[in-house]
Design brief:
The complex is a heterodimer of chains A (about 220) and B (about 450). Helix content of chain A is about 40%, strand content about 20%. Chain A is of the alpha/beta class and about 220 residues long. In chain A, α2 packs parallel to α3 and α6 packs across α8. The chains are: A alpha/beta (about 220), B alpha+beta (about 450). Chains A and B meet through α1, α4 and α8 of A and α4, α5, α6 and α7 of B.
């Protein structure tokens, strides 16, 4: 993917750019909000990665200007500002995701990938399928190899989220934020217990394990397992 | 108990004031009574003396019977203020006049006589020797003075009672006024104690002593608030500023780990442990900053209605698998249609912290119970367990920041979990209450309801 990175701190910029390039992305970087506006409006990027506190025009102002210019490219804020107020402000300005510094490389890469593949028609899909696993989003029904699978509400939400990101790594934090609306670390590993129950219902008795654990990163549902 | 009037300084001051007035009135009454009594006695004396002189004049006139006639004439008069007369021989016999009394010594004195109609009566008389053989006694009934004395006593008696009654009413009004003014100040102080550091004492328009005191207290509070804000800013500032170097450190460790690669497993393990250590420090800072954010009251701007019943169900269903995997059990009972006004994320985090605590500080096989009920005007989100509980003496301390009881030193955490729950409760105008479940601990987050539950179980 072709990405725009706005970050004024050289060490952080180099670190992020290196991680992204190592993952196979093309990265344009800049250090001021004005440059970011110019680049974002004159190039076609898959994801904008913006630091909030940069000199000249800050990331928030830059994103507002970019959105005002009609550019709907998904945007991820990378910022040291971690209060609830800052996050709400960032999302209100048009950001699609918000990641507090410092972060694990895998976390950042997973989020960039999720944003980059976000399909504009995602909300109109009514059925999702991975291999012989199918879910009907309208009826909230699940079947594996034609056999209905009964899931608890939270297991269903977890499965739907994984299926919407089929083939991508989904991190613990992404699940906590998007399924449970927990923007904090609850301490207990809630996700692991839910995933193991979901796995028991989906994969047990089948040769192919669809839900995979990606060490040090998160989970992925795909028919590669 | 502030409602007890005996312990009230306001009523004591007002009471002492009223008592002083009553004593003053009584003293005034005694003085007036004494002065009037003396004045009227003197007036009576001078009347008696004038009469005695007149009779002495008659006695020394040329006609020897003039005295007897004069006395008879005076005694026959129907005047109300008539005097009484007698002339005694040295052996005590009354030779003239009708005054039935003993022969008196010379000069003024009080005496008793026998009144024809009233019997023995008290009087005041003057005795003068007309000659060595005749002693004239002119006397007056004291009834006049006694009547005046009674009038004065009656007037002052009622006056005194009136002053006492007015004093009592005044004391009650004054006391109530003082108490009301002081209560305004103590209510202001209690609001601050309850957590609203921005509350201020009410200041009236009159700028009286109470208002001056309120102004002085308000300036003191402003100063305290400044210090508290300063402390919070410093704490948050330190935590925030330390994030940047820690971020760099974490990035370098991660880059280092990538370069080492999986072939050097032991070096990679050291790097990963170091990253984990950095993450722990960062999560501690995150907790400190989050509490500072809550305590600043900033988040209250984003308050909205929260469906507590749904939130509680979500919490229970989110935690149930992990709790059971941890070897404990969890059950829940959640009343429907309970709504509060607040920040959903913070309330969820508070509830999550209570559930975390119930797991960290209890042994396996503990039963954890999550409840949501509406009690009075509060939504009560309770997390209780049947674990070892917390000693009563320690229960007040578990709110404190970085407070970790000795028995939990070996448990994970920094002692910020309940501090955050408490901060969330106070931000929402509620409170965190601990109780003994015998055995076990119950922690209840009480938040003000915005609407009473409809009390119907239809939705279930």
């Amino acid at each position: 993917m072709k990405l725009l990175l706005l970050e004024d701190d050289k060490e952080m910029r180099d670190h992020v750019a290196r991680l992204l390039r190592a993952a196979g992305h093309v990265v344009d970087d800049c250090v001021t909000g004005r440059d970011a506006i110019f680049l974002a409006t004159s190039n076609d990027y898959s994801v904008l990665i913006l630091d909030r506190l940069v000199p000249d025009l800050d990331g928030l102002g830059a994103l507002k200007a970019i959105r005002a210019a009609g550019v709907q490219t998904p945007a991820l804020f990378l910022t040291a500002l971690q209060s609830i107020g800052d996050r709400v402000e960032g999302l209100d300005a048009g950001a699609d995701d918000y990641l507090v510094k410092p972060f694990a490389g895998a976390e950042m890469l997973a989020r960039v990938a999720a944003l980059g593949r976000r399909s504009p028609t995602a909300d109109t899909i009514t059925r999702l399928a991975v291999a012989d696993l199918e879910i009907d989003i309208l009826k909230r029904t699940v079947s594996r190899a034609g056999q209905p699978v009964h899931l608890q509400q939270q297991e269903y939400k977890l499965l739907e989220y994984l299926m919407r990101h089929a083939g991508e790594i989904v991190t613990r934090t992404m699940l906590l934020e998007n399924i449970w609306s927990f923007h904090f670390d609850p301490g207990t590993n809630l996700i692991e217990s839910h995933v193991s129950r979901l796995r028991a219902k989906i994969d047990r008795g089948h040769d192919q394990e669809l839900i995979q654990t990606v060490r040090g990163a998160g989970y992925r549902i795909s028919n590669a397992g | 108990m502030p409602g007890d009037w005996r312990s009230s300084a306001a009523y004591r001051i007002a009471g002492v004031n009223a008592l002083a007035f009553a004593i003053g009135t009584a003293l005034l009454g005694v003085i007036v009574y004494g002065a009037m009594h003396v004045a009227f006695t003197r007036q009576l004396d001078s009347m008696i003396e004038d009469e005695a002189r007149a009779l002495v004049g008659e006695y020394h006139s040329d006609e020897p019977d003039d005295l007897a006639r004069a006395i008879a004439q005076r005694e026959a008069s129907r005047e109300r203020e008539r005097l009484l007369y007698a002339v005694f021989t040295p052996d005590g016999r009354r030779v003239l006049g009708s005054l039935q009394a003993k022969r008196p010594p010379l000069g003024f004195h009080d005496l008793t006589f026998v009144d024809r109609s009233e019997g023995r009566d008290r009087g005041r008389g003057l005795a003068i020797d007309l000659s060595p053989h005749q002693r004239l006694l002119v006397a007056a009934d004291r009834e006049r003075i006694e009547r005046i004395d009674r009038t004065i006593l009656t007037v002052f008696g009622f006056g005194f009672l009136g002053v006492c009654a007015l004093g009592l009413i005044g004391a009650i009004i004054l006391g109530a006024y003082l108490r009301a003014r002081l209560r305004a100040l103590s209510d202001g102080a209690m609001a601050i104690v309850a957590g609203d550091i921005r509350a201020r004492m009410p200041v009236g328009a009159r700028r009286d002593e109470f208002d001056q005191l309120a102004i002085a207290l308000n300036s003191m509070l402003k100063r305290i608030e400044g210090l508290v804000d300063n402390l919070r800013d410093v704490t948050a500032g330190v935590a925030h500023e330390l994030r940047t170097p820690l971020s760099r450190l974490r990035n370098r460790l991660e880059s280092g780990g990538d370069e080492i690669g999986p072939e050097n497993a032991s070096a990679l393990r050291v790097i990963n442990d170091a990253i984990q250590g950095v993450d722990e420090v960062l999560s501690l800072f995150a907790a400190i900053l989050r509490i500072a954010e809550i305590e600043s009251g900033e988040t209250s701007r984003r308050f909205g209605p929260i469906d507590m019943s749904q939130l509680a169900i979500d919490l229970a269903e989110s935690y149930a698998p992990a709790v059971r995997d941890g070897g404990r059990n969890i059950i829940w009972s959640i009343d429907p249609n309970i709504t509060v006004n607040g920040d959903r994320e913070l309330v969820a985090q508070a509830g999550a912290n209570l559930l975390e605590n119930a797991q960290i500080h209890t042994p396996p096989a503990t039963l954890i119970r999550l409840t949501l009920v509406a009690a009075g005007s509060f939504a009560c989100l309770g997390v209780s367990d049947n674990g070892p509980g917390v000693a009563k003496a320690d229960r007040a301390r578990i709110f404190e920041r970085f407070r970790r009881l000795d028995i939990s030193r070996d448990k994970p955490g920094y002692g910020l979990g309940l501090n955050l729950v408490n901060a969330v409760a106070r931000l929402h105008g509620g409170q965190l209450v601990f109780d003994d479940c015998a055995p076990g601990l119950s922690a209840t987050l009480e938040l003000p309801l915005i609407s009473s539950p409809k009390g119907v179980d239809d939705d279930r």
